[in-house]
Amino acid sequence: MKTFSHALIADVLASLENAGGTPLGTAAYLQVQELVNQLPDDTRPEDLKTLLAPLLCRSQDEQEQFYEMFKKSWARVQETGELEPEAIEQVEADAQVEKRKRRWGILFGYAALVILLVGSLIFSRRSNSDNTKLLTISS
């Protein structure tokens, strides 16, 4: 993917965060990262705008604001040539941190599920052995 796309996406995300609206959530960053990983090298900015909007906007008003921010971000990227590597690295580092958090969350969920299953198994065996003892005593 061309550097301008990384720079443009980083500038758009920064603009959205600085706009004072609803902060972007982890899911939005992960969806953007997944999109970026799948983009071909020859992706045009116009295409990028229409691909990002559904991921980052929840209403018609937000979409209009997004298109305006995107236009300004594209003008800045064209003017400067590209963002500093530090800005791009920061966006990528933030995405990696969010990815790790998601992995830990999934791992924790599976661990809780295993604990519940083992607990259910132990409880059902105890119930069965208690029922067997009651039947033996009653007879």
Could you walk me through the main structural features you see in this protein, from its secondary elements to its overall organization?
This protein has 139 residues and is mostly helical. The protein is built from five helices and no strands. Helix 2 (26-38) packs across helix 5 (85-138). The termini are far apart.
Overall 3D shape:
elongated
Structural class of the secondary structure composition? mainly alpha
Q: What is the overall pLDDT average?
A: 78
Major β-sheet annotation: none
Total DSSP E strands = 0
What is the string of helix and strand elements? HHHHH
Low-confidence stretches: none
Level of helix content?
A: over 70%
Gyration radius over CA: 25 Å
Q: What portion of the residues fall into strands of 2 or more residues?
A: under 5%
Separation of termini? 78 Å
| Total of helices | 5
